[in-house]
Amino acid sequence: MYNIISISLGEIVLKGKNRGYFERKLMEQIKxxxxxxxxxxxxxxxGKIFVESNxxxxxxxxxxxxxxxFGIVQISPCIKVEKDIExxxxxxxxxxxxxxxxxxxxxxxxxTNRTDKRFPIKSMELNSLLGGIILKNFxxxxxxxxxxxxxxxxxxxxxxxIYSEKIKTLGGLPVGTNGxxxxxxxxxxxxxxxxxxxxxxxxxVQAIYYHTYPFTSERTDEKVKKLxxxxxxxxxxxxxHSINILDVYKSIKSNCSEKESxxxxxxxxxxxAEKVAAENDIDVLITGENLGQVASQTVKSISVINEITxxxxxxxxxxxxxxxxxxxxxxxxxxxxxxxxxxxxxxIFSPKHPVTRPKLNDIRKSEEYLNIDKLVSNAYSTMKxxxx
Length: 388
Ligand code: ATP
Ligand code: MG
Prior knowledge:
- By secondary structure, the protein is α/β, with parallel strands linked by helices.
- It has 3 domains: 1-80, THUMP domain-like (Alpha-Beta Plaits, 2-Layer Sandwich), CATH 3.30.70; 83-158, VC0802-like, CATH 3.30.2130.30; 180-387, Rossmann fold (3-Layer(aba) Sandwich).
- The protein is built from 14 helices and 15 strands.
- Strands 1, 2, 3, 4, 5, 6, 7, 8 and 9 form a 9-stranded mixed beta sheet that branches. It has a 6-stranded mixed beta sheet with strand order 14-13-10-11-12-15, sandwiched between helices.
- A hairpin with a 3-residue loop joins strand 7 (150-156) and strand 8.
- Helix 3 crosses helix 4 (123-137) and helix 7 (246-255) packs antiparallel against helix 8 (261-279).
- The chain starts with a strand and ends with a strand.
- The model has no long low-confidence stretch (mean pLDDT 95).
- The structure holds adenosine-5'-triphosphate (ATP) and magnesium ion.
- Magnesium ion (MG) binds at residues 186, 188, 344, 346.
């Protein structure tokens, strides 16, 4: 039935002079998910973007992929036809017949939007003309302009697009329109959600994952890769850096107080992340930290963690409830993977009673017992990179 998808832009339309840039980024993303389909055309027509294919099976697959692109608020599967009134009538009947075969229809309404004012039939006139045709061709139906069972939309642009379904999508801004961020990705519930939320605001996301192999198993690595893959459906391809920090944990364990190990390790994670960020021209770090969720996530800890890096650390989950985070994790299908019970390096080395109000001076003193530069550069040299 459908041969084209219409795409309505969200906040991009408010971008004034920058609109062109945002639209181009969005077009790039749409092309990236549609280019594996043969004979697909992506183009703009008077304020909307369209993806055209003569293969109906492809259209429904493409629809699912486009639903996950940020910067789009609404999509509709449509029939594209020439602006010839006889053809428009014929296709309106086809689409109505198609809908009637799938659901109970007692009332309907036609809603025309004539962007191309050169088209000779005005919107109201076209509504009643097409409404009349439908009434003539189908029994037991009525027009209801207030609360119809079915709405038939007719958009008159360079071509004519007929459709009945408006599917709300994610909104946000196209990935890549707001700089680059390095996500500290663990195997937990929170960090994949954090990456998703920053990508939604246009940040291009790369990821870094710290493990303590052989204390953490390869299954943990697989789990993190799986999570990166899941969020890449929204964020676009993700460059994942995996780094072994076993020596860091060992050195902390033998030289420092157990209570401080979490915060000391977190500062190492930031130091290493900063190095990776510099190498990749990345502007900000992103974590899944959430105030008060665990003993180590207090305002005092945050300030001691921030002190170690000059880069801003974005924490999109900071004020959320766990239930809200889980809801998003389920929606983006990372939850079931995140709760697989494989050990994380933090869970293996985590102290029974972590400090909740670390003092910067104490932490700095403890760090004097560690060979920081060497630990950082050794960890850095274990780095493996994958694109997911
Ligand atoms: P998550 O659910 O994301 O694992 P969490 O609730 O377990 O988070 P913490 O263990 O305190 O909380 O970790 C806070 C943040 O630090 C994580 O969200 C993540 O961004 C980062 N982080 C923790 N462990 C790792 C790791 N092994 N590799 C990369 N980043 C990590
Ligand atoms: Mg965790």
